[in-house]
Amino acid sequence: LPSAINNPKYFNCNFTFNNERTLRFFARSSQLNATDLLCELWESENINGRWQKAEVLNRRIKLPGATTTQPFYVEYANFAILYFVSDRPSGKGGTDIWYSIYNPYDGSFSKPANAGPKVNTKGDETTPNYDLRSGTLYFSSDYLPGYGGMDVFMCKGEPRMWTTPQN
After folding, report:
1. Contact, 53 vs 26, CB < 8 A?
2. What angle do CA 98, 35, 42 make, to 5 degrees?
3. Is the separation of the CB atoms in 75 and 24 below 8 Å?
C-alpha cells in the first residue's frame, strides 16, 4: 500500500471499503509495550486515483483508552453503517460489536451504539461482517454456546434488532 496508508510506526489491518472503493476504513495499532496494542480506526479517501493521507476517526469513534478495531462498512442508498469491535466502557463484556451511522454527504458519524444483548455477551465478540442482501450478521464469540473457543455465529436483522444467534 502507498505510504499514505502504510506507516512503519504502526500495524495496519482489517480493511473495509465503500462500494466505489474510494473510501477505506481500517484499524491501526501502536504497540504500548511488548505484548499490548492500542487499536484505533482510521480512514483514507481515494481522490483521482491516489489514496490520501490516513486520518484517525473522530472522538465519537475513537474513545481515548479504548481499543477500537475490526471495522466493517455497509452502504445503503443514503447512509452507511460502520460496525466495529471495541472494549469501550458500557459494553456487555470484554470486546463487543458496536455500530455508528455514517453520513457519506458530510462524513459525520452518529454516537456509537452497542449492537445489543443478543449479539454481545459477557465474553468477547469479534469480526463483524454484515451481508446486506440476506440481512445477516456474521461474527465470532467465545461466550455463546458453541464448540469451544471462538466460534462463528450468524443472526438476521439490523442494529439492535437481531434474531437469536446460531452457531
Report:
1. no
2. 40
3. no
Cell numbers representing residue 33 in the block: 509495550
Which residue do the cell numbers 458453541 mark?
146
Verdict on whether the full-model pTM lies above 0.90: yes
- For residue 43, what is its C-alpha cell? 480512514
Q: How many CB atoms are located within 10 Å of the residue 136 CB?
A: 15
Q: Output b/e per residue, 88-103; b: 16+ Cβ within 10 A.
A: beebbebbbbbbbbbe
Can you say how many angstroms the Cα of residue 9 is from the centroid of all Cα atoms in its chain? 22
C-alpha cell at position 142 = 467465545
CA atoms within 13 A of residue 147's CA, in its CB half-sphere: 5
- Dihedral angle sign, alpha carbons of residues 53, 73, 150, 123: positive
Report DSSP state, residue 89.
Answer: T
The CA–CA distances, whole Å, from 136 to 78, 100, 159, 162, 164 equal 20, 17, 11, 9, 12
Q: Give the tens place of pLDDT for each residue, 100-133.
A: 999 988 989 999 999 999 999 999 999 999 999 9
- What is the distance between the alpha carbons of residues 72 and 128, in angstroms, rounded to a whole number? 6
**74-94 residue pLDDT tens:** 999 999 999 999 999 989 989
